Amino acid sequence: MTTATATVTHTAALARLGHALSDPTRTSILLALREAPAYPSDLADALGVSRQVMSNQLACLRGCGLVESIPDGRRTWYRLADPHLADALDDLLRLVLFVDPDCCEGEGCTC
């Protein structure tokens, strides 16, 4: 793999992760799945969202290649698609960032 190819591949992967983390519900799903696989209904209940919202967000995360669905009889459970993602999320959680409460709250974000 050439450096240019690796850069394009890495950029695309990080962009997908950034997209996933840009939504609080998707972020919460990834953090929950970092702990253990789960059924969508259990995730919906734990995060206080409807099952339809959970279904839509899991579809997005699946499309980004971050989670995978595992058939289990008539039900399906979800887990992180790559175990390294759990480590990456742990590393991100260890970052200490100053968060300006007035930044990035609306459409006119200028940060």
UniProtKB/TrEMBL annotation:
<dbReference type="GO" id="GO:0046686">
    <property type="term" value="P:response to cadmium ion"/>
</dbReference>
<dbReference type="InterPro" id="IPR036388">
    <property type="entry name" value="WH-like_DNA-bd_sf"/>
</dbReference>
<dbReference type="InterPro" id="IPR011991">
    <property type="entry name" value="ArsR-like_HTH"/>
</dbReference>
<dbReference type="GO" id="GO:0003700">
    <property type="term" value="F:DNA-binding transcription factor activity"/>
</dbReference>
<feature type="domain" description="HTH arsR-type">
    <location>
        <begin position="6"/>
        <end position="100"/>
    </location>
</feature>
<dbReference type="GO" id="GO:0032791">
    <property type="term" value="F:lead ion binding"/>
</dbReference>
<dbReference type="GO" id="GO:0097063">
    <property type="term" value="F:cadmium ion sensor activity"/>
</dbReference>
<dbReference type="InterPro" id="IPR001845">
    <property type="entry name" value="HTH_ArsR_DNA-bd_dom"/>
</dbReference>
<dbReference type="InterPro" id="IPR036390">
    <property type="entry name" value="WH_DNA-bd_sf"/>
</dbReference>
<dbReference type="GO" id="GO:0010288">
    <property type="term" value="P:response to lead ion"/>
</dbReference>
<protein>
    <submittedName>
        <fullName>Winged helix-turn-helix transcriptional regulator</fullName>
    </submittedName>
</protein>
<dbReference type="GO" id="GO:0003677">
    <property type="term" value="F:DNA binding"/>
</dbReference>
<dbReference type="Pfam" id="PF01022">
    <property type="entry name" value="HTH_5"/>
</dbReference>
<dbReference type="InterPro" id="IPR052543">
    <property type="entry name" value="HTH_Metal-responsive_Reg"/>
</dbReference>
